[in-house]
Every structure is written in structure tokens, then in C-alpha cells.
């Protein structure tokens, strides 16, 4: 089922049962869901079948980063399982991203392909330790432009960088932003955060939200509070 909601709920659970227990409380008309490394490593493609069977559009977040042929083949495998979106790491470089995008278009696969720029858990000193001497905002912009030139549909970035990416890459280029923290939620391990409304105002096209909903005392109350905030936007 297609939805025009910007919300993507991260199903970061250690088992298929736990993930489906959450999914069964969600409405595919009101959000998409994200399957990440922990859940996919434990449950495999069965989780994709189960979520598709419930009508959800799925973002398969495995952040591929490898040589071009390996990443292109992994992206093709994901798309052939019908996922709505899949991602790679932009720091894998132009040839890796171009190979992945070409593999999708050669096979007429319409899955959205996006690239992670700088993880929302990172700050300037984390980048410095990896040899990147520019600020997170500069590095995100550099990788966003590279991603666009490589033919991908958008990036994962923090909402703090969404406005600049919108200005340079345009409104159609997807800005998928994790690190979303409603005022009632803790930051946890996220560093570059923003509230849902501020994120949309800044130009985010999709908001990835995990623990503020999934670890809330009542996940549905937390989700309703976020939806109410966005409805007023
Ligand atoms: O690619 C992602 O989805 C991602 C990229 C990034 O830079 N930061 C980030 O937090 N994520 C994912 O977004 C989700 C955020 O979850 P919460 O911090 O619980 O809201 C997690 O599943 C992360 O793996």
C-alpha cells in the first residue's frame, strides 16, 4: 500500500515476532517501516515477505559498502524482493554508486536507491579520527552532490543538513533523516538531532523514527503525538 506519510518507523527488534508485534499495531496507510541490520540478520527475507503481506512499503536499511559489483548485486537482490527503498554508503564512492544505480535501471527495478552521507551518531571529532578534516555539514554536502551525480534518488543525512541539500540538490532529491527526536524523547546515541516538525520545515522528505516510538511506554501514544505535531505543520 502506498502512503504519502513522511514517517518511516525503524523496526529495530531482535526477532521476527517482536518486529511483527509492533508492525501489527501500525497502519501501512500512515507510515512505512524500516528493516535494519539486526532484524534482517536474525530473520532474513522472511521479514520482508511478512511486512509486504501486511501492506507495508519497506526501507531495507543494510547500508551496503563494498566493491562495485558486490554492491550492485546486493542492491539488485534487495530490489527483486520488492523493497520500496534500499541504501548504500556514499563513501563507497562514485563507481560503487553508479554500478548500483545502473544495475537497477538495467533490470527495470524501481526501488529507490539512496546513500548514507555522515551517520547521525557522528560529530566533528568522530570524523577527524577517521581522517576527515572538514565539518559534518561540509562532508554531508560533498557526499550528497557525489550521490546525485552518481544517479541515486537521494541521501540519508541529519535534518540539520536538509536545507542545504535541498538548496543545492533540489526538492525532488530525497532527504531521508534519522536522528528525529520529538521533545518528549531522549537523544540516546544520536548526535545531530531535530524534532519532527523542524525536520520537515528544514526540507526532510522522510523522517526515520525508532526508539522514540518503539521504546515508548505506549508506542501508539508516542506515534499519535508525533502525528498530531505533524498535522499542525
Ligand atoms: O540509514 C539509516 O537509517 C540511519 C542512518 C543514520 O545516519 N543514522 C541512523 O540512526 N540510521 C538508522 O535510523 C534509525 C534511528 O533509530 P532511533 O535512533 O531509535 O530513532 C536506526 O535504525 C539507525 O540504524
From TrEMBL:
Catalyzes the decarboxylation of orotidine 5'-monophosphate (OMP) to uridine 5'-monophosphate (UMP). Belongs to the OMP decarboxylase family. Type 1 subfamily. It is an enzyme of class 4 (lyase). Residues 6-226 form the Orotidine 5'-phosphate decarboxylase domain. Pathway: Pyrimidine metabolism; UMP biosynthesis via de novo pathway; UMP from orotate: step 2/2. One of its GO terms (cellular component) is cytosol. It catalyses: orotidine 5'-phosphate + H(+) = UMP + CO2. It comes from the Bacteria. GO terms for biological process: 'de novo' pyrimidine nucleobase biosynthetic process; 'de novo' UMP biosynthetic process. Substrate binds at residues 12, 34, 61-70, 120, 181, 190, 210-211. GO terms for molecular function: orotidine-5'-phosphate decarboxylase activity. It comes from Vreelandella nigrificans. Gene3D superfamilies: Aldolase class I. The gene is pyrF. Keywords: Decarboxylase, Lyase, Pyrimidine biosynthesis. Its EC number is 4.1.1.23. InterPro entries: Aldolase_TIM, OMPdecase, OMPdecase_AS, OMPdecase_bac, OMPdeCOase_dom, RibuloseP-bd_barrel. Homodimer. The active site is at 61 (for ompdecase activity), 63 (proton donor), 63 (for ompdecase activity), 66 (for ompdecase activity). This is Orotidine 5'-phosphate decarboxylase.
Amino acid at each position: 500500500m502506498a502512503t504519502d506519510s513522511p514517517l518511516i518507523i525503524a523496526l529495530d527488534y531482535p526477532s521476527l515476532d517482536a518486529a511483527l508485534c509492533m508492525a501489527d499495531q501500525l497502519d501501512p496507510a500512515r507510515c512505512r517501516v524500516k528493516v535494519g541490520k539486526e532484524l534482517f540478520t536474525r530473520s532474513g527475507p522472511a521479514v520482508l515477505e511478512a511486512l509486504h503481506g501486511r501492506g507495508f512499503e519497506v526501507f531495507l536499511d543494510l547500508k551496503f559498502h563494498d566493491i562495485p559489483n558486490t554492491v550492485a548485486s546486493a542492491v539488485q537482490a534487495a530490489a527483486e524482493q520488492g523493497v520500496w527503498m534500499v541504501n548504500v554508503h556514499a563513501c563507497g564512492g562514485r563507481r560503487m554508486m553508479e554500478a548500483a544505480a545502473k544495475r537497477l535501471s538495467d533490470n527495470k527495478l524501481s526501488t529507490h536507491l539512496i546513500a548514507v552521507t555522515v551517520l547521525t551518531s557522528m560529530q566533528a571529532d568522530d570524523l577527524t579520527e577517521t581522517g576527515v578534516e572538514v565539518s559534518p555539514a561540509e562532508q554531508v554536502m560533498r557526499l550528497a552532490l557525489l550521490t546525485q551525480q552518481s544517479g541515486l534518488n537521494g541521501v540519508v543525512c541529519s535534518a540539520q543538513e536538509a536545507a542545504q541539500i535541498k538548496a543545492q540538490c533540489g526538492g525532488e532529491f530525497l532527504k531521508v533523516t534519522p536522528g528525529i527526536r520529538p521533545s518528549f524523547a531522549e537523544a540516546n546515541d544520536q548526535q545531530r538531532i531535530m524534532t519532527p516538525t523542524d525536520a520537515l520545515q528544514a526540507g526532510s522528505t522522510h523522517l526515520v523514527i525508532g526508539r522514540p516510538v518503539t521504546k515508548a511506554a505506549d508506542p501508539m501514544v508516542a506515534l499519535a503525538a508525533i502525528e498530531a505535531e505533524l498535522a499542525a505543520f
